[in-house]
Automatic annotation (TrEMBL):
Gene Ontology MF terms: lyase activity
GO biological process, one term: organic phosphonate metabolic process
Pfam families: PhnI (PF05861)
Protein name: Carbon-phosphorus lyase complex subunit PhnI
Segments crossing the lipid bilayer: none
Region spans: Disordered: 382-409
InterPro entries: PhnI (IPR008773)
Native source species: Advenella kashmirensis
Low complexity bias locations: 387-396
Keywords: Lyase
Record bears the keyword Membrane: no
Amino acid sequence: MYVAVKGGETAIENAHRLLDQKRRGATDVPPLSLTQIAQQMPLAVARVMSEGSLYDRELAALAIKQSAGDLLEAIFLLRAYRTTLSRYCVSRPLHTESMQVERRISATYKDLPGGQLLGPTFDYTHRLLDFTLQAEGEQPQALQRSQAGVDGAADAQQATLPGAMPLGADAQADAAMQEAGQHFPRVLGLLAQEGLMREETDSAQPVPDITREPLDFPSNRMQRLQALARGDEGFLLALGYSTQRGYGRNHPFAGEIRIGFTEVWLEPEELDFAVPAGDIEVTECEMVNQFVGSKDQPAQFTRGYGLAFGYNERKVMGMALVDRALRAAEYDEEITSPAQQEEFVLMHCDNVEAAGFVSHLKLPHYVDFQAELELIRKMRKRDAQAELDQQQQQETEAGRVPPQKEKRA
């Protein structure tokens, strides 16, 4: 049992008070509002919602504010709140092919039906600090140039890749296409039409919920995708990177990455039909991977899949890479790398669980440490005594050796 600590309750209360002061900072600086966080830190909010497994921008912003910007702590707060919510019904699968796209790119085809749309992205920035952001109320340089007419209407044209459908003069036609229900087709569908893409079939089995049922191994893909969607972005990114460096035979192409809003439909038990609940922003990624085939299957392409709440491009790319790596057994591929070992990946990708286990080392371990300290002292004492006994034995044996006779000339 742990040794009692005097004054612990008072010390903890003072620590909480100091944390509030640390979070608030200088009182002469206006505090951040939840609206400011949600609107001006959308990528942080998206990560907290995704790994916190709860789509609510206001609550995610509150968690970020309460955690003083520690996203992992914010994710923990959001998950803890999620456990208090009632579950009324299960939504229908999202139809991301009907997404209202704000960004859509492909590294496999230049000319796509519907075109490629860059949307908001850091990909083509120079990674130089924009010091205009230091000035209160000033707008970023790119936005200033756009509003001043330097780029003018060309901005819309430059926001499309070569071969894309123009967005300037044809914006009305694009909107009409969306209203008419003609949505952007999937890029991987082009390969499927030629029979070059491994066909994905619905198993028609109930989808397990890893928040209610523990993971079992070997796991199925439904469980793996849920775990990866809640997994740490950095962990998945590192594993995905490892597959590119030779730790797992994986040579992918970004088949399609799309970001936008898709509608969520619910089918309550008391109703015989589905009703729309609203739109949510999601990021989807489909990676194209080569499969050399086997004696039973021809050479074809396979896919890795990633989906996350909000604008979460890097996360879904890492997720798609790891998803494909974890399908090695499905394709009778040799499992040689950490990214292909499902128990290693799924049991270590959860940052809340990992942080909790590592952080518990900060809790009192006085008895455990005293036991180890006593053990170390006994071992050192035993070793010293053994060394002394050995030295005495050597001296005794040296005293028993008869003197050698002197040789006469």
